[in-house]
Amino acid sequence: MSSFNIINGSCVNQNVDAIVNAANGYMSHGGGVARAILLKAGTELNTACRRFRLPISDGECISTPAFNIKNAKVIIHAVGPDFGSTPDAFDKLKSAYYNSLIELKNYNLHSISFPLISASIFSGNLKNAVSITTKYCKEAYNDFLSNFKDYNIDVYLCCYDKKEYEEAISIK
Fold this sequence. Notes:
By secondary structure, the protein is an alpha/beta fold. It contains five helices and six strands.
């Protein structure tokens, strides 16, 4: 049976099949969750990312091995929109989540940990960015379940700090 869970913690530290990186289109791992993943995975991650044709478009994702990350099998790098330059790109946000779930299924994997995609540096002037990204993550999950009724997945939406967590769990 599938499940959707909101947790207070880092997506990098969850025992799951796939960890999602809130990536930029050029796969540069400068800060935030991308940096945390790079530090744990090792420099082989950068080499693997350079093998792809870049940039990756908003809403799309690519996958790499987890390298030195022992609590996951793959890293899915999902590109969320930068709401500072594309303030109405909610469809791309939902696509980043949904396409990550499709990628999970393509690998025949069943558990995934997400960060709050586009809720930090890419949030631009969005008010309630955590609420918005939580809403679209839930919608992507529900769409996935609708389209793949017999495929079980466990989703963990990870809120790094307590304030984000409290906002996310308030979303119906």
